[in-house]
Structures are given as C-alpha cells and as structure tokens.
User: Which sequence fits this backbone?
C-alpha cells in the first residue's frame, strides 16, 4: 500500500517543529548569516526539544523516532535556516553508526550521556585530499597494543569546533583502500586533537565548519565501531539514512523561497498590476510548487524504505540529488521574481540562494549522486 497521509502524531511533531523554526530559528537567521557565529543558544533549545537525538532509541534517552519523522523535522527546521538545521542535524549523522553498529557498552557509554546533557557530535570522513573519493583517505589508525594511534587531518567538519565527540574514519592499512578503513569513537578531549578555526563560507554561515588535526591520538579498542574491515560500510550506511534528511532540508529551504516569492509577486506592481498577474511569473511560481512536491515525495519514499529496513542507497541518492538541484533552482528563481531587490541584502532571498548551493556539494555531490544512480542502472563501469 502507498499512503501519503501523516498520522496525527506526525502532524503534531511537524507543527511543533514549524513553530520552533518560526519562533526560534528564523528571527536569528539573518544575524548568524551576517556574523557567521555559532548559534549556541538555539542549539541548546534544540537539545531541550530532543532535536539533537531524534534517532537515538528511547531506552538510551533519545526520541526513538523513525527516518520519515526525522525528515519531517528536517524540512521544518531548514525552513527557518538551513545552516542552523545542519548544525542540529549533524549529530544524527555522527550518532547513526553508534546506534546501528555500536555494542551495548558503547551505546551506554556514548548515547546515554549524549541524551542527558547538551552535547554535539561530528562525523569525520572528508579530508583535504579525499572528498568525493573518501576511500583514498590518508588519516591512519595504526594498531598499537590494545587500541589505535590516530594521525591525520579531517576537513570540512560540521560542528568540528564545538563537538564533544567525533566519529572518525581512518585507515589501518592504506594498501587495502576502503577495506582497511575503520570507524572510531573519539572523545574531543583526547590529547593530540587540534581544532581549526571556522571556515568563512559563502552560505549556511550559522553552521560551524572546521579542519581537525589528529596527532598521535590514542583510541582504545573498546571505541572501535564494529569490526576492522567494516568502517567504510558504516560510513556509507549512515549517508543512506541522512541523505533523505538533507533532501528534506532542501525542500524546507525551497519552500521558504517559494513563499517569499509568492508574497512579493502579489505586492510588486509593474505595468499597473501586481507582477503575479503576469503569466510568466505565475509559471515560475507554479514550477516551484511542482518541484517542491516532487522532491518531498522522493524524500518520503527514500525515508519509508529505510524505516522498513530496506536498502535505499539509490532512492536516497535520487532524493538528495533532485532536492538539492531543486533548492538551487527555486532560490535562483526567487531572486528573479524579486528583480533588483532580490540581488540585495535587504531581502532574504539572496541568502537562501547562497545557502542552497552547498547542498549540491556536501553529503555527496550532485555528480556523485548521479554516479550512484547510474551504477544501479549499469553496474560498475570502468
Ligand atoms: C559546508 C560543508 C560542510 C561539510 N560537512 C562535512 C562533515 O561534517 N563531515 C565530512 O566528513 N565532510 C563534510 N563536508 C565535506 C563534503 O562532504 C565534501 O565537500 C564533498 O564530499 C565533496 O568533496 P570535495 O569538496 O573534496 O570535492 P571533490 O571531491 O574535490 O570534487 C570536486 C568536483 O569534482 C566532482 N567529482 C569528483 N569526483 C567525480 C567523479 N568520479 N565523477 C564526476 N564528478 C566528480 C565533484 O562532484 C565536484 O563537483 C562538508 C563540506 C561543506 C562544504
């Protein structure tokens, strides 16, 4: 059966998140965009609402939500500000490998404390020379006694400057490429970790993005997630779950741009009538609505498959690619509807356009999403 109706509980979650976005996130969005500072107060409020730990099972103090419910949350939070949403969301990405592959001892040691006080986690995969091809990572985890010694630099780490916990992917033997990659839970207080300063970005400026350097950081074997040889699979499994959430965020961002453009088109008079009376403008607005609906349905499909425990790598890539491109198109068109005013800092649509761009780059770029989709059609091609 295919259903498109949300349950009363889902609608209540959605409405609550929409209020949070409208009352807490949106009023601060412009300031954080201008100043590029971290929205600590909002993050603490998000923690109090349980938005940092929706996927963590209830037995450890989390929300015990499903993937679809977390996508509903994502769309609403991102409608307030995509950068603040990403700061909230990234702990879910980092915690996913612990939720799915952690031992009971690891869940007790890391998930429970995470839920009982305000804490952030980062997902550390990318490196200066390994982005779309993470299997070529240079960070090493050299086996040493009853653990590993981590050395290397991670790059573009969201919340890197503020996280208390890092889930780090590193190679025990670079000759083995992805088969040598392991995943380690690393407390940020471990000696030998150096956090870089915030990277000055084009958009999503409320989210903190840094480099992280690991110099002879000792990590006990009890912090190894799953077996050796399994780390790369865990990294990719987390992305299958979180790509629909990023897609949902893109939908929320696009929705805000569409709402602003629709309001402006009804107010701005040219040729003696509101510009919304011109068919060319109506069609721009209608195309926004068509794309947003389509993207949301793709997101929901990818999320529902994950909730059913089914493999969704291709559907997650389809949803993420479509929603990211859609957000870029809708925000660009919103600037067009505003005309010259859209090209100024006096109206928020230029910010939405800047915020949209990076969705086509992170969590797997537009090209990498298409690579995944083409592979599902053609198999591996040389
Ligand atoms: C704001 C921000 C936040 C981020 N947060 C995190 C985080 O929390 N954790 C983390 O680990 N990483 C994070 N990243 C990193 C992000 O995942 C990478 O930027 C992304 O994977 C792309 O890697 P790259 O930037 O090195 O681009 P590259 O891999 O250098 O790619 C450059 C261009 O080449 C294209 N390309 C590469 N390979 C192929 C191919 N085989 N076929 C066709 N085209 C190709 C790409 O699509 C892209 O257009 C973040 C990045 C940003 C900008």
Assistant:
């Amino acid at each position: 059966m295919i259903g498109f109706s949300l349950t009363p509980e889902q609608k209540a979650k959605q409405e609550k998140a929409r209020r949070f976005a409208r009352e807490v996130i949106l009023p601060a969005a412009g300031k954080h965009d201008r100043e590029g500072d971290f929205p600590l107060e909002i993050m603490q409020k998000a923690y109090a609402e349980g938005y940092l730990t929706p996927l963590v099972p209830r037995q450890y103090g989390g929300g015990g939500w499903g993937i679809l419910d977390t996508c509903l949350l994502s769309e609403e939070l991102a409608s307030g500000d995509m950068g603040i949403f990403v700061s909230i969301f990234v702990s879910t990405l980092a915690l996913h490998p612990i939720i799915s592959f952690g031992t009971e001892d690891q869940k007790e040691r890391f998930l429970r404390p995470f839920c009982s006080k305000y804490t952030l986690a980062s997902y550390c995969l990318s490196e200066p020379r390994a982005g779309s091809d993470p299997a070529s990572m240079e960070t090493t985890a050299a086996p040493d006694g009853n653990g590993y010694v981590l050395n290397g630099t991670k790059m573009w780490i969201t919340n890197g400057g503020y996280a208390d916990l890092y889930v780090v992917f590193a190679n025990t033997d670079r000759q083995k490429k992805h088969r040598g990659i392991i995943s380690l839970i690393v407390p940020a207080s471990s000696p030998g970790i150096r956090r870089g300063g915030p990277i000055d970005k084009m958009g999503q400026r409320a989210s903190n993005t840094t480099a992280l350097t690991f110099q002879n950081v000792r990590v006990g074997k009890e912090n190894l997630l799953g077996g050796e040889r399994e780390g790369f699979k865990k990294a990719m499994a987390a992305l299958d779950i979180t790509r629909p959430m990023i897609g949902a965020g893109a939908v929320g961002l696009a929705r805000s741009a569409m709402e602003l453009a629709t309001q402006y088109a009804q107010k701005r008079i040219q040729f003696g009538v509101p510009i919304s009376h011109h068919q060319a403008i109506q069609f721009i607005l209608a195309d926004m609505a068509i794309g947003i609906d389509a993207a949301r349905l793709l997101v929901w499909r990818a999320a529902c498959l994950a909730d059913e425990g089914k493999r969704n790598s291709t559907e997650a890539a389809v949803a993420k690619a479509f929603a990211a491109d859609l957000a870029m198109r809708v925000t660009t068109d919103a600037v067009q509807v505003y005309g010259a005013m859209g090209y100024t800092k006096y109206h928020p649509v230029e910010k939405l356009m800047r915020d949209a761009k990076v969705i086509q780059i992170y969590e797997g770029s537009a090209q990498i999403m298409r690579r995944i989709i083409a592979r599902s059609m053609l198999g591996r091609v040389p």
Residues 90, 122-126, 131-132, 156-158, 201, 204, 209, 358, 361-362, 365, 367-368, 371 surround flavin-adenine dinucleotide (CB under 6 Å). Strands lie at 121-124, 140-144, 147-158, 165-171, 181-187, 193-195, 209-220, 269-270, 273-274. The mean pLDDT is 96. The radius of gyration is 21 Å.
